[in-house]
Amino acid sequence: MSAASLVGYSSSGSEDEAEAATTTSPGAGGRPGGPRPSERFPVPESVLNMFPGLEEGPQDDSAKHGGRVRSFPHERGNWATHVYIPYAAREEFLDLLDVLLRRAQACVPRLVGMEGFHLSLSHSVVLRHHWILPFVQALKDRLAAFQRTFVGLEVTSGHAQLLDLVSEVDRVMEEFDLTTFYQDPSFHISLAWCVGDARVQLEGQCLRELQEIVDEFEDAEVPLRVLTEQVRCKSGNKFFSMPLK
Fold first, then answer.
1. At 89, is the secondary structure helix, strand, or coil?
2. Among 47, 155, 203, 218, which is most buried by a count of CB atoms within 10 Å?
3. 188 noted as active-site residue
4. Position 50 pLDDT exceeds 80
C-alpha cells in the first residue's frame, strides 16, 4: 500500500402547527362539559419535560462539543443524517495519532484529537422524522450486494469500492431530493479538529513534518488497514447498520 497523505481542511413548522390546531369538539364526540380549547390550562413545563416527543430531535448545545456549531439550525421534526463507514481504531493507529497530534499542536495548540473515526459517504443532510425508516431501508436495498473491502489512511486502497458505495448512497439521496456527495471525493479519516480556520498554521513545514511521521510509521509498522464490514447511518440520536457481505 502506498503511503497515506495528510490533508488540512475547514470544514416543517406547518405540520406541527396543524397538529397543534387539531382538537375534539363536543359535536364530534367530545365531552360537552369540558373547557373549550382556548380555556385549557397550560401544561407545566416540568411535566412536558417528562415526556419528550419522538418527533423532536436531540437538543444541540455547542458548549458540549467544544464550540462546534451545527451547519443548519435545529427545527422540530428535522433530523441531521449522515452515512459513513465506522473505523475501529487499533493500537498502532492510536500510537500514530498520538505522535501526530503532539507535533500538530506545536503549530496549532487548540487542536483536539478526534474521539471517534469514520469515512464519510455522504454530506450531513436533513430528514423529516417519518422519512428515516424509508431512507434507511432504501440504503439497505442499495448496499445489500456490496462485499467487504480494505481501506487505508487517506485512503490509498479501496478507493474504487468506496466510489461504488457513494454512487449507491447518492441514488438514495436523489430519491429523497437530498444533496449528493462530492463528485470527486477524497476519502479520509479525520484525526483532529479545532474551532476556526487553522490551515495557514498547518500548511508548509508543519504539514511536511507530519507527512514524514506517517511515512516513517508505515515503513516500520503494519500498514494501517481496516476490514470494512458495515455502512452506518446516523439520524439524530438513532443509528442504523447495513452489513456488507
1. coil
2. 155
3. yes
4. no
Report pLDDT digits (tens) over 85-123.
Answer: 998 888 888 999 999 999 999 999 999 999 899 999 999
CATH of the domain at 191: 3.90.1140.10
118 labelled catalytic: yes
Structural domain of 233: 77-243
Q: Are 215 and 3 in contact (CB under 8 A)?
A: yes
Task: Name the active-site residue from 74, 123, 159, 188.
Answer: 188
pTM: 0.69
Alpha-carbon span 120 to 215, nearest angstrom: 24
Number of structural domains the chain divides into: 1
DSSP string, 173-194: HHHTT-----SS-------EE-
Catalytic option among 74, 118, 123, 159? 118
Residue type at position 172: V
CA distances, 114 to each of 57, 65, 98, 123, 243 (Å) = 24, 11, 11, 19, 25
Neighbours of 178 (CB within 10 A): 17
Task: Indicate whether 150 belongs to any domain.
Answer: yes
Task: Show the cell assigned to 102.
Answer: 503532539
Q: Which residue has the cell 397538529?
A: 19
